[in-house]
Amino acid sequence: MSVSREEVLRIAQLAELHVEEEQLPMLVEQMSRILDYVAQLSQLPAGEMVKPFLAGPDATGFHADEVRPAPLARSPAEMAPAFKDGYFLVPKLGQFGSVDDVPEEE
Amino acid sequence: MTTVAEAVATARATVERLTKAKRLHALLTPATELRKSLLQQAQAAHPSGVLYGMPVVVKDNICTLDFTTTCGSKILAGWRAPYDATAVARLRAAGALIAGKSNCDEFAMGSSTEHSAYGRSVHPLDKTRVPGGSSGGSAALVAAGVVPAALGSETGGSVRQPASFCGIVGIKPTYGRVSRYGLVAFGSSLDQIGVFGRSVHDAGRVLSVISGRDPRDATCEERDALRLPTVPESLNGFVIGIPKEYFPSDLDPGVRRACERSIRLLKDLGAAVREVSLPHTAHAVPAYYIVAPAEASSNLARYDGVRYGPRAEDAGDVRSLYRNTRGEGFGPEVRRRILVGTYVLSSGYYDAYYRKAQQARALIAQDFRNAFDRGVDLLFTPTTPTTAFKAGEKLADPVAMYLSDIFVCTANLAGLPAMSLPIGRVKGLPVGGQFIGQAFLEDEMLEAAYALERVVPATEEA
Fold first, then answer.
1. pLDDT tens per residue, range B384-406
2. CA–CA distance, B395 with B372 (Å, rounded to integer)
3. Known catalytic residues of B?
4. A 47-106 residues with CB below 8 A of B?
């Protein structure tokens, strides 16, 4: 297996994604299968770095720096699960930023 | 069509056809809402528009003011966009009627529509098979004759693959030809809105309308709208390359026969045909399945239960809110891709995965440039290695599903225009042939497709 159960849990935390315990064995197996498959790119010779390719315009077009009304037919209040007095409502920040729940690497 | 009465009659007939096509499970818009909206649109549409009265279905990851935009996901259940995508606004300005939102794999991640949170769509010719994906709902509705054209989106072949499976025309324009404003982002360096049509002309007409510069999308090129070519008498002067890497020994024999018949027809039409090599093609699927999930893991960070859609109940703090909303809202394929994308971008793995994928992408783009620099105007290949597969056949193995994109994802990685058109059948199922063109030379690609379409026995066994 390319990834362990602990690595999947750690990545899920980085991605802010809750994963149920019963989903873990299959996720470990499938992520390993995918990562093993894409790892074939390691056969590309090191040092044969060509200029990175990006489609699209060579340069980003700039516009005048002026305030324009947002053409929204619906306000954020209509789209948000909770909204009051111009603010999105969320629960307390709580342990946001805590690293205590990040499992140690084996 | 020139009168409001005719447009209204078309709207009514479209609703009737869409209702009858319920078995395809291809449309996510409820019939009552669709009927009301279509009749209102028909009354309001501008009769001088070049698409006046044409019903066009729109994939559910493209924003529309009417109808919900859910991207086939529970995390956007019930969400209504606050604006029309530029492509949709241009369709309306041309008099087209937006005929509802079509089913798709969740956030366009999939090749079968089996990853839609709202159930899979059905192949119009065989209910046990998939219509392809991720734009499978749009493809199924066009193939069933319900609408003449539809919008889809491409990140790695999601228009051409279902077009091939369903036996219709599907076009992916050059990256930057069509504005992405209002297309829900998946892989921003790859995403493009594409079109489906029953014929090259129908698909081309719609592409022409939606193309062209848009100040709301900085990746949209400063170019005028695409001008459609006329149908050519012959393909004299065209040089068409046949990349040998797209004809592997394990290619489905029926698909091979159909392609070889088309190549003979291209020669008969006057084109010079020569074999070419695109030596880094084998790296395309692994490169794509690093780049696209990496970009998706960033783009989908915005779905956190704060600004859009439903949120998880009883979250004690904001971090639990994020995690629970995303854990409950995303389906299995999206979760997998977010995790893979986060993994390949994480410290210690970036060089081994993401940097290698960027290297492969650059080499693949260089392969195409080399072929075109040697005098080839267009490339011709099979669109998919097989015809439409059975539902459930590839669900357990994500890599098997990914490999159905092997001939289509290269054009996305290189930002090139490409299209699929029907070129025959194998055991009753459609086979697609693919043209890949040079950047912003969609007109040449359409010319060749017009010519081949006229002579190829698209509904006959190969």
1. 999 999 999 999 899 999 999 99
2. 37
3. 59, 134, 158
4. 48-57, 60-61, 63, 71-76, 78-82, 88, 90-96
Per-residue model confidence as pLDDT tens digits over B146-197: 999 999 999 999 999 999 999 999 999 999 999 999 999 999 999 999 999 9
Which ranges of chain A have pLDDT less than 50? Answer: 99, 105-106
CA dihedral of residues B243, B246, B252, B258 (deg, nearest 10): -40
Measured between CA atoms, how close is A29 to chain B, in angstroms? Answer: 10
Alpha-carbon distance of B135 to B193, in angstroms, equals: 10
Nearest CA in chain B to A40: B286
Q: A34 — contact with chain B (CB < 8 Å)?
A: yes
User: Given CA atoms B250, B251, B252, B258 in this order, what sign does their dihedral have?
Assistant: negative
Record: contact A33-B399, CB cut-off 8 A: yes
Report the residue of A13, A27, A53 to disrupt the B interface, i.e. the one with the largest count of B CBs within 10 Å: A53
Distance from CA of B21 to the nearest CA of A (A): 31
Q: Within 13 A of B303's CA, how many CA atoms are on the CB side?
A: 31
State the complex-level ipTM: 0.92
User: For residue B215, which residues of chain A lie inside 8 Å, CB to CB?
Assistant: 61, 63
State which H helix or E strand residue B156 sits in: none
First to last CA, chain B: 37
Which residues in chain A touch residue B188, judged by CB atoms under 8 angstroms apart? none
Tokens of residue B262, six digits = 């088309």
Residue with tokens 């999105």: A88
Measured between alpha carbons, how far is B264 from B316 in angstroms, rounded to an integer?
67
Residue A62, classified by CB atoms within 10 Å of its CB into exposed (0-12), middle (13-18) or buried (19+), is exposed
Q: Show the tokens assigned to B80.
A: 């209504």
Q: Predicted confidence band at B61 (pLDDT cuts at 50, 70, 90)? A: very high
For B13, B111, B383, the CA distances from B159, given in Å and listed in that order, are 26, 10, 11
Alpha-carbon distance A103 to nearest alpha carbon in chain B (angstroms)? 16
| The two three-digit tokens of residue A90, written as one number | 């969320």
* Alpha-carbon B317 to chain mean position: 39
Beta-carbon separation of A44 and B283 below 8 A: yes
Per residue, the 3-state secondary structure of A68-97, as one string, reads CCCCCCCCHHHHCCCEECCEECCCCCCCCC
In this complex, is the C-beta atom of A28 within 8 Å of any C-beta atom belonging to chain B?
no
Yes or no, beta carbons of A91 and B365 under 8 Å apart = no
Angstroms from B125 CA to nearest CA on chain A: 32
CA dist list (Å): B88 to B34, B56, B152, B294, B298:
16, 10, 12, 28, 26
The amino acid sitting at B355 is R
